[in-house]
Amino acid sequence: MTASEKKLTRRSFLTTTALAAGALATASMAGCSSVSTDEKPEASPETSAPASEPAPVEEKTYSNWCRGNCGAMSCCLDTVVREGKIVSTRQHPVKAQQSIKLQPGCVKAASNIQRIYGNHRLLYPMLQAGERGSDNWERISWDEALSMIAEKMQAAFDEYGPESVGFLSSYSGNSGSLSTVFGGFTNFPEARAPLGVGPERFLQKTGASIFTATGDAAGLYMQMVVLGVPGNSPEDAVNAKNIFLFGNPCDSSKAQWTSILDAKERGAKLTTIDPRFSNTAAHSDLWIPVRPSTDGALILAACNYIIDNDLIDYDYLRNKSVAPLLVKEDGSYLRLSDLDLPLCRKEDPATGETVEVDTEVVYDEVSKTFGSSFEIKDPAFSGTFDANGESVRTVYDLAYESIKPFTVEYAANECGLPVEVIESFAQSYADGPSFILTNWGFQHYQNSWRMYYGLAFLASLTGNACKSGANYGNSLLSTVWLEKPVANPEATAFTVKDAKVSKMASYSRIPDLVNTGSWAGEDYTLRLLWIAGANPIECGIGYTEQIEAWKKIDFVVVAAEYVNDTVRQASLALPVTMAFEAEDLLADGLNQKAIDPVGESKSDFEIFVELAKAMGYDDLYDKDAEGYLRELLDTEDNIAAGLDYDSLHEKGFVFKDAFERNEVVGAEYNPTGRTQFYLESLYSNGNWDAEITQQDRLPYYEHAFEAYPSNPAREQYPLFAVSYHDNYTGHSMHNHVPWLNELRGLEGTSGNGEPYTVIHESAAAERGIKTGDKIRVFNSRGSFVTLALVSKGIREDTITVPRGYAGDEMMEGHLQSVTSIEARDKVTNNDSHNDWICQVEKM
Ligand SMILES: Nc1nc2c(c(=O)[nH]1)N[C@H]1C(S)=C(S)[C@@H](COP(=O)(O)OP(=O)(O)OC[C@H]3O[C@@H](n4cnc5c(=O)[nH]c(N)nc54)[C@H](O)[C@@H]3O)O[C@H]1N2
Ligand SMILES: Nc1nc2c(c(=O)[nH]1)N[C@H]1C(S)=C(S)[C@@H](COP(=O)(O)OP(=O)(O)OC[C@H]3O[C@@H](n4cnc5c(=O)[nH]c(N)nc54)[C@H](O)[C@@H]3O)O[C@H]1N2
Ligand SMILES: [Mo]
């Protein structure tokens, strides 16, 4: 932070932003567009408004997505433009994504002007003149940049094949149908979701590799892809009796939080399970300070308690869960054809037609016969049966056997909680409808993917699934307040003739690829890495391992909006437009172009189009951006609904006058038609060498990589550490925003807005630490320095560290430097950001 960035006070934040401006006469802000830049932070309506009547200035409001990466979707913003400059970006009243009901008041939304015009904005293509990481830049032209990349790319293709060029993206390049670079989760490259038109056509043409995001992969992959649980909408929480929050929606998901508060008003009991006393915990009836990484043990202990105390919903268990399905010795389901039974005639949900299906088999205890799981009512959920000479067992028996060791006593020890707390957690959960909202913090550990089976088993035992008020994972969000155009299903924008199929892997496997020189047993060289919409050095695990590995890659291109720790490791940085500067279609509406690109920035779409030209692929793109948007939007239905290109280009987002509160109850969309806590086949997400065992198909608890209580390394590094997503940042997207840094830093000490680490008062006393002291957090891999905040609101064995500061915003060191790339797991490749232990010392 520079001195001028720190000059602001909390009050100055309010007076300089739209938050306060709304309450002031609009005219008083006229002409003071400098208020939006951080070079002149003192500017405020009081100081900069002219004394005499201001001349009226023309003002136009545009629709934009905030794209602060605060969740699956973005908030709708009203962007106010005067004389070609943005003067305010505020959440669209009432219908902002993060708050259906709350009045707009997101400080991140209001601070966009300091991101757009801030002094970290990347304005021109920049070539790293010295070594990568040396921060020694030389400005070059787009022509020079593109021909340099084209030459390097062609050489890589010629010498090492198309897979030697790789495109890496996380969730932030979520800029729409033209530009999205994110590749989704799949181990089946043929079945991946299309990227935006720009990158998609380029990848199909070249067959270059795709490296996908790994943050939240455990939850996203296990809940959504593998188990097939969409989750209820958050509004359905009002129908719950007991709500269990494993995350911190109060800060991280205001849409969910609004519903949780509604539910509380209606009498639901809130329990927050979190090692730290979060803002969510502060609003709850009960705070369960679980030891980091051990929730899996808590969940399975609750299953054991529910079974031992017969709190089971037998109807659900038998008829709506996979409990009674029969499993053969090889782990696969017994099917009708195994027993030469007639196939089951049932409706195909997709077509409505009756089809014959070789379904799973269950056992009917009354008639003593086997039959289809879709036909037999109240089948046996426990037992071993002889199926034509083969011994088969129920899923329930396999699962119960698997979880048996994880008793309440085991969990008390592992989770650092009293037995009574675990028992009462199980009792109140069984007393449904119970709504579990996990969010994502508790799955940032190795092996956390296993918890999703545990949650499904818990829900199946008690019937807390597929009904109103019952949820067991993340809940579904949707922009119910927008009239949505339907993209033309016949559009050919996303398909190139003779498309090549890209190899895919999680990006955290890049160090393995370059260090071993092989990919799935074949020789492999990564020559050129292109990063867009991701900040893996600042957000990924294994800071040091990634930087070291990248040194072995010939050329690294980073397309980003502003300079960050990943850009610093680039050979060449390309400036990318923010949402305000380029038109694009998101699933829910058209993001308008409010201003011309800042500096020489271009959208990802444009960059790919121009790169294609430099590569000599002259006819790869047959339309410009508008042409593709028209192809997607100008269908008869969209024209009739006023949601065609011309209409949306003019109107931006089309808000509904009235909208239903969405109380969708998640259906399980897997072929068994039942809540699954067993998987016949499980594939790894982005891991080519994962060995899947029978244990991996069942609920089970396995401790984390490093952050587990019995780890002998705790003698040296006794403390666990959790980082969290606060109100003032969306990952690294809000780094170097002076207003936000000031709001989130430690106040009332010499700190003046510096990052701080929260430490329990007993752990602090042992180390002679007081609030405001400078402390070093370290382990064998790395360290960082912040101020200390001594508190009771954290477990004694845990600290909580600030998330979302760039290296140069920390007092010293880097948060990600203490993480390890080894903390990934074999099934989901989840980045396990919280899976590390440390020691703390006063400086
Ligand atoms: N220690 C710790 N680490 C964590 C977490 C934690 O809790 N603790 N949380 C993790 C989680 S949950 C996640 S999801 C990840 C997020 O990790 P990332 O998705 O990598 O993080 P972001 O900061 O959102 O990425 C921002 C980058 O995208 C660029 N960008 C934004 N929009 C565009 C665009 O349209 N085009 C292009 N080309 N670039 C664009 C920005 O310039 C910036 O470089 O971080 C993880 N890291
Ligand atoms: N303002 C804001 N909103 C965001 C984001 C943001 O960066 N800023 N990021 C978005 C993204 S990509 C994500 S993934 C979500 C994250 O949303 P959340 O999951 O709600 O957020 P986190 O802060 O990662 O984690 C939630 C809580 O989990 C706790 N926790 C850590 N370890 C454990 C554990 O082992 N067990 C339990 N029970 N709790 C644990 C942390 O202390 C934290 O309070 O937020 C989204 N929304
Ligand atoms: Mo995330």
From TrEMBL:
GO molecular function: iron-sulfur cluster binding; metal ion binding; molybdopterin cofactor binding; oxidoreductase activity
InterPro entries per record: Asp_de-COase-like_dom_sf (IPR009010), MoPterin_dinucl-bd_dom (IPR006657), Mopterin_OxRdtase (IPR006656), Mopterin_OxRdtase_prok_CS (IPR006655), Prok_Mopterin_Oxidored (IPR050612), TAT_signal (IPR006311), TAT_signal_bac_arc (IPR019546)
Residue intervals of the Molybdopterin dinucleotide-binding domain: 723-825
Pfam families noted in UniProt: Molybdopterin (PF00384), Molydop_binding (PF01568)
Record carries keyword Repeat: no
Cofactor(s) of this protein: Mo-bis(molybdopterin guanine dinucleotide)
Signal peptide: 1-30
Annotated coiled-coil segments of the chain: none
Residue ranges of the region described as Disordered: 34-57
Domain of life assignment: Bacteria
Compositional bias of kind Low complexity: 44-55
Molybdopterin oxidoreductase domain span: 121-613
Keyword DNA-binding part of the UniProt annotation: no
Family: Belongs to the prokaryotic molybdopterin-containing oxidoreductase family.
NCBIfam families reported in the protein's UniProt record: TAT_signal_seq
Record protein name field: Molybdopterin-dependent oxidoreductase
UniProt organism field: Xiamenia xianingshaonis
